[in-house]
Amino acid sequence: MTGQGCRHRAATIAAIAAGIVFLLCSAAALPSGASPYLPLNLSPEIERQVERVLVLSGHPVLTRPIPIATVLEALPAACTRDAALCRRVRHYLDRYFGVAGVTEASVEVAAATHSTTTLPNQRGERIDSPWDASAVAFYRPYDHLLLTAGGVAYGGTGSRFNPDGSMLSLGDEYLQIDAGWRSQWLSPMTDSSMLVSTEAPTMPSLTLSNQRPIGSLGLQYELFLARMSYSDHIVYN
User: Fold this and answer.
1) What are the distances in angstroms from CA 232 to CA 111, 117, 229?
2) Which of these, 118, 181, 204, lies nearest to 154 by C-alpha position?
3) How far from chain centre, in Å, is Cα 156?
4) Helix, strand, or coil here: 85?
5) Is the four-CA dihedral 150, 135, 195, 55 of positive or negative sign?
6) For the chain, N or C: smaller number of CB within 10 Å?
7) What is the pTM of this model?
């Protein structure tokens, strides 16, 4: 074989190899199976960056927590307009692509005088809480099955532990079932919600939703049934 023929064959093999790598990377980047969620009101800096990615790609944020599958679908369009933002968000999302891992962990300490005032959107935590902690970990044995263990705890007079984020997820991008303590936020606003938010501790619930819009109209749905806690502080008659 001549030297020119060898170079031609080598170039062809390199092109085929590059194409295979591109296809594998594209397949890995596409949303498939049960999707984890971004932590809600736990990492404000990454939430703002992700919301900018969704805005740049034309994806409105109407409910939270935001599924990772939705962010992955929005990234290609956002990358053409803000490459630096795209790199930061992709780097953050890397933690969700393994079989198991810890996606979020934080501890905060504070000093404050006695107060019964509740912090906004912090799952019932009071201003005088001396510390709070949160963590989320996941295990994905199959593409369509996701186990998530999470929790939020805070100390002080009103100390509490809430298994926020602990749930079993089944399905794919068009129908996902979440059973457990899934956060709910039904509002396009980030500071408050008149329907459901994280003002109170997360309720155990069963949620049906889709991560990828359906059809040319972009149909999205989210239905959930939750169990509220019992209270004897409500005056009746």
Assistant:
1) 31, 20, 10
2) 118
3) 29
4) helix
5) negative
6) C
7) 0.80
pLDDT tens digits for 26-60?
Answer: 333 444 689 999 988 767 888 889 999 999 998 88
8 Å CB contact between 31 and 173 = yes
Mean pLDDT of the chain: 84
d(CA 162, CA 43): 17
Q: Are 151 and 165 in contact (CB under 8 A)?
A: yes
Nearest-CA neighbor of 184 among 227, 153, 219?
A: 227
Task: Give the 3-state secondary structure of 173-232.
Answer: CCCEEEEECCCCEECCCCCCCCCCCCCCCCCCEEEEECCCCECCCCECCEEEEECCCCCC
Instruction: Output the pLDDT for position 234.
Output: 83
Identify the helix (H) or strand (E) that includes residue 109: strand 100-109
Dist CA 32 CA 146 (whole Å): 12
Query: Which whole-number Å values give the CA distances from 174 to 33, 77, 99, 120, 122, in the listed order?
Result: 9, 21, 22, 33, 30
User: Which residue(s) pair with 169 in the sheet?
Assistant: 146, 178
Give pLDDT tens digits for 80-110.
999 999 999 999 999 999 999 999 999 999 8
Q: Output the furthest CA–CA distance in the chain (Å, rounded).
A: 98
DSSP symbol at 94:
G
Quickly state the pLDDT bin for 13 (edges 50, 70, 90): very low
